[in-house]
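Our consortium's second objective concerns turning raw sequence data into structural hypotheses that experimental partners can test. To show how far this objective has progressed, the report includes one record in full. It was chosen at random from the queue rather than selected for favorable results. The single chain below, 143 residues long, was entered without modification.
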Amino acid sequence: MKRHAKVLDYRLSRGSGEKDLEVIHHRLSDVKEEQVSGLLSRKLVVGKNEMLGFVYLKKGCIVPAHKHVSEQITLILEGAMEFTTQGKKIVVNKDEMLVIPPNVEHAAVALEDTLDLDCFSPLREDWLTGTDQYLRSGIAARL
């Protein structure tokens, strides 16, 4: 499966065997930012079993309803988001977290300019290959 070019995917450079045990240090400022839509960009750091997404959302950015096999933990580093899931709305502010179990449908809107850290396990292959059409369809760019 082809990897999206703007992803910092450590698996590509490591191969198999002893080298998989190597500890790798990087600076977030060195990770390429991918512009996913007009209001959403992200930086991805990928390990063997887990990945981090630093997601930048402009106020009003809509993340359409979706679900995935990955467990997701979202930490809001700046700003605020309103999530809709399981029939309720949950506002998550700076320094607050939301744990979303696998296969649970959720949607979100940025209430202000927001930086969130999304942690996924297993890896989000749709994010890695650029096939995450729910974010790229233009809905995520609406105010």
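The partners drew two points from this record. The mean pLDDT is 88. Residues 8-141 form a domain with the Jelly Rolls fold (CATH 2.60.120.10). Both points have been shared with the crystallography group to help prioritize constructs.
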